[in-house]
Sequence to fold (1704 residues):
Amino acid sequence: MRAKTEEQIAAEEAWNETEKVWLVHRDGFSLASQLKSEELNLPEGKVRVKLDHDGAILDVDEDDVEKANAPSCDRLEDLASLVYLNESSVLHTLRQRYGASLLHTYAGPSLLVLGPRGAPAVYSEKVMHMFKGCRREDMAPHIYAVAQTAYRAMLMSRQDQSIILLGSSGSGKTTSCQHLVQYLATIAGISGNKVFSVEKWQALYTLLEAFGNSPTIMNGNATRFSQILSLDFDQAGQVASASIQTMLLEKLRVARRPASEATFNVFYYLLACGDGTLRTELHLNHLAENNVFGIVPLAKPEEKQKAAQQFSKLQAAMKVLGISPDEQKACWLILAAIYHLGAAGATKAGRKQFARHEWAQKAAYLLGCSLEELSSAIFKHQHKGGTLQRSTSFRQGPEESGLGDGTGPKLSALECLEGMAAGLYSELFTLLVSLVNRALKSSQHSLCSMMIVDTPGFQNPEQGGSARGASFEELCHNYTQDRLQRLFHERTFVQELERYKEENIELAFDDLEPPTDDSVAAVDQASHQSLVRSLARTDEARGLLWLLEEEALVPGASEDALLERLFSYYGPQEGDKKGQSPLLHSSKPHHFLLGHSHGTNWVEYNVTGWLNYTKQNPATQNAPRLLQDSQKKIISNLFVGRAGSATVLSGSIAGLEGGSQLALRRVTSMRKSFATGMAAVKKKSLCIQMKLQVDALIDTIKKSKLHFVHCFLPVAEGWAGEPRSASSRRVSSSSELDLPSGDHCEAGLLQLDVPLLRTQLRGSRLLDAMRMYRQGYPDHMVFSEFRRRFDVLAPHLTKKHGRNYIVVDERRAVEELLECLDLEKSSCCMGLSRVFFRAGTLARLEEQRDEQTSRNLTLFQAACRGYLARQYFKKRKIQDLAIRCVQKNIKKNKGVKDWPWWKLFTTVRPLIEVQLSEEQIRNKDEEIQQLRSKLEKVEKERNELRLNNDRLESRISELTSELTDERNTGESASQLLDAETAERLRAEKEMKELQTQYDALKKQMEVMEMEVMEARLIRAAEINGEVDDDDAGGEWRLKYERAVREVDFTKKRLQQEFEDKLEVEQQNKRQLERRLGDLQADSEESQRALQQLKKKCQRLTAELQDTKLHLEGQQVRNHELEKKQRRFDSELSQAHEEAQREKLQREKLQREKDMLLAEAFSLKQQLEEKDMDIAGFTQKVVSLEAELQDISSQESKDEASLAKVKKQLRDLEAKVKDQEEELDEQAGTIQMLEQAKLRLEMEMERMRQTHSKEMESRDEEVEEARQSCQKKLKQMEVQLEEEYEDKQKVLREKRELEGKLATLSDQVNRRDFESEKRLRKDLKRTKALLADAQLMLDHLKNSAPSKREIAQLKNQLEESEFTCAAAVKARKAMEVEIEDLHLQIDDIAKAKTALEEQLSRLQREKNEIQNRLEEDQEDMNELMKKHKAAVAQASRDLAQINDLQAQLEEANKEKQELQEKLQALQSQVEFLEQSMVDKSLVSRQEAKIRELETRLEFERTQVKRLESLAGRLKENMEKLTEERDQRIAAENREKEHNKRLQRQLRDTKEEMGELARKEAEASRKKHELEMDLESLEAANQSLQADLKLAFKRIGDLQAAIEDEMESDENEDLINSEGDSDVDSELEDRVDGVKSWLSKNKGPSKAASDDGSLKSSSPTSYWKSLAPDRSDDEHDPLDNTSRPRYSHSYLSDSDTEAKLTETSA
Fold:
């Protein structure tokens, strides 16, 4: 905020003293000065003012006076910043800004734009870049500022944004929309972006302007459709895709439009086309003289030339949008066909047909069909053959179902022709929007979107100077604007008040007027029974659109009935005051007035022909089919593809192709508006379609954050600054003063129409919105979001709550933050979940946050730069070291560059590298080719998947929409059925009630008829005298007469009472009427007074609020000044402290100055003393020169002494040279030692750091190894204990098994011995039996069963032998396995002992490692001590070296002095050689020479001492290096040892695992052996039983043989011959059995695991093993053979039993 000058302050004070006001009158307002009312005797409600322009003094009403603001507020950028917010002040500011070509002004959160008459130069690209990246507070009011604000809000909140343009027709809404899109495309578009470039949006608006705009009486290029332009943005904030949806197109304008208005621009462009080929192809070379559609070429040549240029521009735009030449040609064909249809015309009476068939033939040719097909589609509407496909569901109304049988609407031929033209143009426009969306869509991922809503403005023909009534299309556009105005009211007032109520924020807005949405309700209010199609009219109020639909269903309906019903619902009622009703009667027939914009814009509508318009036109519905069936492929291909995607929005909304995810979401939202509840039933109605389209528009933009732009008309062309008729009646002007126009206004500001601007300002309710914005809290944030965003302004709170700053009570944290921010209490308010701010407070906090963030970033940048500088310094040091290394290598290279082998090496080395590099390049090329092929494959697959994905998404969206439609249709059907059921039940109930009433009335009528009949009979009897004069007759007659007299008396009495009561009631009525009149007069007067008081209260409330806000602003300013004062005080105190410090510094400097002066004085005295010394030295030099002259005057006589002196001089010179060389070498050596020392120190430091790090890491590793070793030792101990227990268990089991085997072997041996004795005793008996058997065989040779039994016995014996052999083999195998188990157990025991030894060894090694580590730690400590001592010694040595260097420098100086003296002496010697000297002089010279020699000796000893010192230092360094190397070697050994231990541990673990597996295997084998042992025991028992049975049989045979002992001798011989063979066989088999029994000490593996051989006989067992005797390698434990053994055993036992019976 800039500080005000003294002149400005003085001007404001003078302005405030005069109390300037605005005087409101009919033509606008005038500036005046209000005179003080204390000195004047004015009536109540009057004030006296003095006009500034002429000095006139007037007495006016208080309501006509509004406070004026200071001149400094004349051009404020925000109207909400005015001190006094009223209509006149706002209009004055707008007028001042408009006069200065400032067309844009902020109105609180909205923007107000005054439509410019020309093209101002404030929309250039340079101006765009001025707004790029700015905040709203930093930008001047501009349409670009709205786009930037919405764009910034979208990026920050990731929420969809919408910009809505409101205003009248011709106010510049479409122009502002184009500027918005241009800004977003320029700022947010990527350079080279092909999706939505600047060229594309320019081409887009060129296309839409050509096909959707037309000249009207209010605008020379008016938009005739509503549109939503959606821009989708990606995560980077760049435009990813775009789409456009259009609705409410005036398609009937092609054929029929108001007078003095033109059709769409594209027809004039096409007729002015300069391409002769195209004109010939379209048959436009010869134009018709008249056209029923009114499409005629332009008359003026300049207009034709301009139209031709526009057509070329349109073609270029279509090319930019990717519309192919064939598609363009299809468009031109359809447009030319529409023109030719208009030229063809239609008959007015008689048969429906074309008036001029040659033009119709041209139209049919262009459309690709025959003339008969075209005529049938236009004039003949049949349902046969799919000509007109209509729905026959419950949604079909009577007007739809009646078309087929001739009972539908009677349409004229011209109306059918107009319907076909409208349908063709509608389909063409929808196709163009689809092609545009095809060019704008993209497959990029989009995050959020921005929608720009542009609709036709308010249409009022009266403002354009026309006397006609508005049409139905203009009603639809005005209704759309009213709906958008209501949305503005909801977002600005209703939602804000609800938010304040939810957050418990108390604010009083008493001066806000309640909303008046009667105009919207009068158009679209639906009844609760709207779902039921019925011809019955109900009394429930409904809107004009619903009434139109109902009246269209009623036969013989008229516009008068429509208006009568409409006024019965919404017209002015009795007792209503003027202005309360949204409808007014018009003086013209079939006209009515409807008040839009909250009753400020009254439009007169003409309803003539509206009922015919709302009926279905079959020709319009036949247009899509005609285009789809066209013979021209360029037309049919375009429209057949669109026919596949059926949509319920056909003919209503264009551009519903889903190009992206956000576009699909918008389309789904629009579809829901057409497919829910009432919409699903009424979507076929043309009237209700208008409401549904507006509902879809509102529902789409409601889900986003809204930004409103109000466009005002500065001047109306035909209004002349004065409202007419309805407008003049409805625009309330407070005063009827007739002031001279122009006297009260500045000369340069007369271009504004103030009454028109005032009307638009009142209709938009911007004043109330600005008051709400000023008084309320427009900015708000959630607690957590506010804390996270602005905690940077309070760093101490962040430190208090920690790094993450996570708090439980967000409200408390925000309160602390607000306390730290030191805000004015009135500038913020705490809600339940949000913190609210006055306007501008959050912007100031954002500015402070940006400043603090900039400071933090500056500090961070400084730290980063410091770090980078240090890194650069380290890098330069490394580079310096590298340079030295390179220099050293270059020196070395110089030494070897002439070496032949080196030359050969340098020659061959590049060739090898070249070969290798070529191979690598080839390999890389191959890899690149492979990767490229893979990439192409992946790209191809990705593109295919993307296409599939898009196709599936579109299919899903279509299916979803269809499903939604069907579901909603079902819901609507159920609702309809419910409504019809309720209606039927209600009708049945009413019918029952009526039936009961009818029955009661019927009975009453019968009684009355009986009475009448009796009365008639009695009357007839009296007249005819037929009544008898008997007693009974006389009695009845007397009774009758008495009753008649009583009735007459009663009648008279009642008549008198009634007259008396009537007179009393009339008197009371007259009194009540008088009282009512008085009360009505009083009520009207009180109402007038109440209205005046209400207006005054509102005015005073507004002024009070303005004063209150001004006071709050002053308080905020005072608070800011107090903050500045506190800041100034703190800075002042700091300045005082700095001044005090400077004073102390000055005193200190003064003291230092005094000290320096004293030192200078002492130095001056010392200088004087030195001067005196110099004078003394000069005298000495003079005396020495005199002596030298004396010496030179003498002559030497001794030549030998002279030669000796010369020789000594030469020796001395040689020694001096040697000393100099030695000194140079020593100096170089010292320098090298210093460098080596520095390097060693750096190396030692680095080694110390690395060693410390390595020691730490090694300690950690050792600790981890120790822990892991302990864990592993514990595990191994546990495993060893388990193994020991398992081993003990195995040993016990082994001992038990051995005992069992020993007992079994003893039993078997004992049993074998007894059986052998029995067999030897019975051998003879057996031989006898066998002999008997042989005899029996001889006797029964021919007996087959005996031979078979013998063969079976032989087979059994053989099988027994085989079984014995198998058992022997099994026993041997078991013995081998038992030995293996013993060996394994021994191995396990050995492994266990080895593991125990290894564990003990590892434990010892662990202890040794720990001891070694402790020793290493001690050694390290000692090394560190030695290192520290060495460093200290090195520092001391460095000091000594420095001292020696100083001494060397002194020695060098002395050396130079000696050289000078030597030179002097040489010159003297030369002089003496020339002249003889005496011996005394020679002796003196020799003494001097000896002195010099002693000094040289001393220097030589010093150098030797330094060399010895350097040697010691070098030895110390070498020792330290050796110790370091030893330490490193020891560490490496320790690492190797640790690795070796780890490997041993791993091996041990593996061995333990192997032992565990072996132990498991041993246990498994032990279990198997136990099972085998049991099976063998069972087999042994069965064998013993079989032996007993065999012995029994042998005894039986022996008894039988003894009975046959006395047989023939021949038979005995025969028996003896065969006895030998049988005996030998029997002995062999018995021996085999004995051997098997003696060897069978262990279990056999041939038995099955389930003990199937426990009860089997040896015969069956042998027989089961007989088939496997040939396979020696067969496993006896094979599971496949076990069932076969048991089965064969059973079968053999049965046969054996049979054999024993037969043998017995």
